[in-house]
Structure formats: C-alpha cells, structure tokens
Amino acid sequence: MVKRVSRSRWGRVFCLTLTLSLAAALLGAFSAGEGGQAKAQQPQMVLSGTAIGGKPGQGPLSKAVFNHQKHEAAVGNCESCHHTGSMDACSSCHTSQGSPEGGNIQLSEAMHSAQAKASCVGCHYQETKKKQCAGCHQFIAAGPKEGSCVACHKDPKAPAPAAAKPAQPEVVTIGSISKDYQACEFNHSSHVEMLQDYAKGALAKGFHTQPDTLCQGCHHHTPAGVTPPKCGTCHGKAFQKEDPRRPGLMAAYHIQCNQCHKAMGVDSPKATDCKTCHAPKK
Amino acid sequence: MKRRNFLGLAGAATATALAGKAQAAGGHSFDGYPNSYGVLFDASRCIGCRQCEMGCNKINSENVTEPWTTLPKKDPKAFDEKGLNATARTDASMYTLVNKYEPQALGGKTPVFKKAQCMHCKEPACASACFVKAFTKTPEGAVTYNGSVCVGCRYCMVACPWDVPTYEFNKLIPYVQKCHMCHPHIKSGKTTMPACVKACPMEALTWGKREDLIKEAWARISSVPGRYLPHVYGEREMGGTNWMYISNVPFAQIGLREDLGKTPAPEMTSGALGLVPLVACLWPVLLGGIWQITKWKDERAEEDKQKAVAEAIAQERAKAGK
After folding, report:
1. β-strands B97-101, B112-116 pairing
2. Can you give the pTM of this predicted structure?
3. Touching check for B227 and chain A: CB below 8 Å?
4. Structure ipTM
5. What are the distances in angstroms from CA A269 to CA A2, A133, A257, A278?
6. Closest residue of B to A240, CA-based?
7. Could you read off the pLDDT of A239-281 as tens digits, one per residue?
C-alpha cells in the first residue's frame, strides 16, 4: 500500500523552484539551439583514442573519427555511452593500461568489446540485430574484423572511395535440379535494390566501406571488386570430411535463402512452400 | 550331483558374482565405440519441411527384407505442414517426426522445429532392460533391433527416457519399431548416410563421426557468440548419445528433457542387478547349510537319546539280572 502524504508548504516551494528552473533551462537550451544552427554545417567531430602508428595519416591506423553530435542524436541519452553518469573522458578511468577505477578495463577494450553495451563495437553490434540488417549480419561474428579497423580509424583527408557500380545480373537462373523441376528464377536485382534501400542510412553507409560490401552478405569470401564465382564452385557434396563447415550445394542455397528471410522477417514465400521456387515440370 | 560338487560350483559362482560387482562399482566407464557415427541436429536451421520424414518413410517402406524394420508406405501428401505440432510422438508407422514449438524464449510466436527419433545412446537403456538381447549397440553407432528374438514384453518402451520404442499393437505378430539410423541400409550399400540426413535441404542434420560432430557443434556455438546456447544436448545426457542437438532456445522448450543427468541407464541398475547372482547362489547355500546343521544337531541329539536310553535299559536289565 502506498500512503499518500499531503504536500507540505516546503514541498510546494520546491515544486515551484523546480518548474521555474526547468523553464529557464528550456529557454536557455532553445537559444543555444538557435546559435547551434549555424554550427550544424560543421558536425562536432571528436578524434579519440590512441593513434596506432602516429598522427592521422601518418601510420597504418589513424585516430578514430567520432561524430559526437550524430551519436548523441541517435542514442537519445548520454548514459548509453557515459555509463557512470559522469561526462569525463572515457580515458580518465579506462586508461590505456587499465586502472582499478575503470575496473581494470583498458581503453582499447572499453572501445572494442563486442559484448559490452557502452562500447563502440558492442553498441554497433546490437544495431546489426535489427531486421533490415540481420539477414546478412546474422552470419557475421561480433567484434572487429581484419580490415574493418579503417571504418573508424580513417584519415579524414583521405579521398572517399569511388562509387563504383558493380555489374550485376537482373535474374539468376538456378538450374541445379532442372531435371526434376523447373529452373528457379532468382530475381537478383530486386534483392539488391531492396538491400540498398535498407542500407542507405548513414550508419550502414559509414560501415559498408566498399561499394560492394553489401554484395558480400550473400557472396561471402568473394573480395570486393571481384566478380563472384557460382555457388557450386565451392559448394558441392555435403559432409566433406576435410571441411565440415562448408555446406553442400543444396544446403548452401537453402540456408542462404531461408536463414536470411527468417532473420529479416520475410514471411512470403514460406520456407516450406517448395513449389514457389521449385515449380513442377509441365 | 554330489554335495561336494554342488558346493564347489556355488562357491565359484559366488566368487564370480562378487568380482563382477566389484568391477561395476569400481570406476565403471565406457567411452563409447571409437569412430562410431552419429547425427547433429541444429534447431536454428530446421524449417519444418518434413523432408526427413518423407526420406525415412521411403527408404524403410520399399524393398526391406526384415518385417521388423518395415514401415507402412505413406502418401507424400501426408507430410504437410498442418500436421506439425508440439505433442506428437513417433508411433509404429514412423521412425522419426518433426515437432513444432513456439518457445517462450523467442516471444511465444516464432516457430522452432525439432526432429525426434531414437537418440542411439552410447549405453542404451532399452538394451539393458531387454532380457532376450533383442537390441544391439553396434560399433558403428546405431542401436539396432532384432525382432526374431523379441518376446514382446515392451520393457524397452518403459526403459527409454525419450519414449522412443513403439509397438505394433494393431498387428497379429507385433514388433517393436524404432529408428535404426539406417544401419541395415548403409551396410547393404543402399545409402551412404541416414535417409533423413540425405533429404534435409538445410543441412540441419549433419552426418559424421561422433567426435567430429561434437567439435563441429562447439565450433558453431563459438562462431557467433549468443546465437546458440552453450550446450550440446546428447554429449553427456544419459552417458552420451550418438544423436545430438544444438539449439538457439532452451532444450526444455523444444521438448527435450533436461532432467536426465549424465549417468548411463545401465550403470544405475548394474549395482542392484549385480547382486542377483549373489543372492541366487549364496542364499541357497547359506539356508541349506543352516538346515543341514539343524538336522545334524537333531540327529545327534536323537542318537544320543537312543544311546542313553539303550544304556539305561541295559543297566536296568543288568541290575534286574543280578
């Protein structure tokens, strides 16, 4: 039972003060926002962390470029990252070698831990679980990969990669079992267009560093800029002793289609509706 | 049989029983047949298409010689999606079936499928319960059934913790029916792997050596942390099974018992059953001996009495004769 306590006079004074101060703060914020409009052209950039190999542009890795303003807008509250409530720099507790104040978690770990909520990589990993990303990202393990460093540790002066448009077929005809069923017509371009539509946000654009990164969701192991081989080039018989992790061709197709549709919440066609892809022969 | 021979035999039997019991109690362990084969089921991959059921029915209903490994032929239309539910069990007309669950772990609406069949235990409870040795754990991994010796007691059905063996209650000459991991078909060269595995379009079923499958299971679990539960069902359950499961939802929510423990079923009964020969051999000797001693004592007492009476009579007669 919650017992209701009637407000005392002091309570009223406190409430009034609170309301007044809130109003003042709001007004202040508004005027600051007016002033900030001019600065919006120049997003607030923070170059954070230890540059591995020297100053920006001088070594294999530059300092990470962090757009504070965009992140502030995206997460909504400061505590998402400033998990202690203090607005001090991360490195004040998470020193490069770790300190007891920071739970002996080094700065690199605080930034790159894939399982932590407040770390850069951890928070971004959570983002990949959204339906429009999960199709490809479900197969990609959490944490930084080789080659993904430059997504953050980039030289701000370096030229942006050319927006190449890899050649791609409209329809892919899959006829592996065309002896028994009609060949399956896979609408390649509509799949690509849909994925491009999902990945047009700033977050996806920032991290899909190559123009054909998106292609690698299905054409895994094919380096960017190379025409992918046919699935059957690598996927053949099932359960090969030398490589148990590699599915046979039948499973490679079905896993690719079904797992992606499942993760992205695509209900049609149903996974058990064989005839939509494998139409009976006339 | 002479008394001496009987006692000698009884003594030998007792000694054997005692030795057997000591062995069972002292660090009994069977690590399973090396290089035995098994199957790994991945619940996160299964889409519930029931191709495995169709494959199983096809191979086990056509050109099978033994009546106890023959299933009735089913129409492919019988394996439609509407037939899927969470409660169905294998019956005498099928060796395997797919169950559909809507686990709480995924919000109670997303379906997760599980294929049910014989787990092919490393130390099968059915085989240990069977007193005519109708079940065999083959070195290849499968637990097979020989209907020619079966007496129909159905102890195997009671013993199995996964309710796998089923009975042909509707037949005049009934047999127990249970998945044999396509052991006869692989032996005869009809197929290279169980028909269900071959039919699976998602490779939700993986065929291989048990040791390799365990490695593969853990490799999948660790490849994307958080996708699977860190548990390979069947690696240790009931002493280990040759059919194993990995899942993205708790096993209890897809109808797999989590209360079974790691002790193989035969080990639980071997202590008590090991005592049976001891009781059977020692007790007759012991009770017979007691009876014999009592009888000797009575005889001796009777003899003494007769003797005393005879002596007394003789004395009395001698006195009277004087």
Report:
1. antiparallel
2. 0.74
3. yes
4. 0.72
5. 53, 20, 11, 12
6. B208
7. 877 777 889 999 999 999 999 998 998 988 888 888 888 998 8
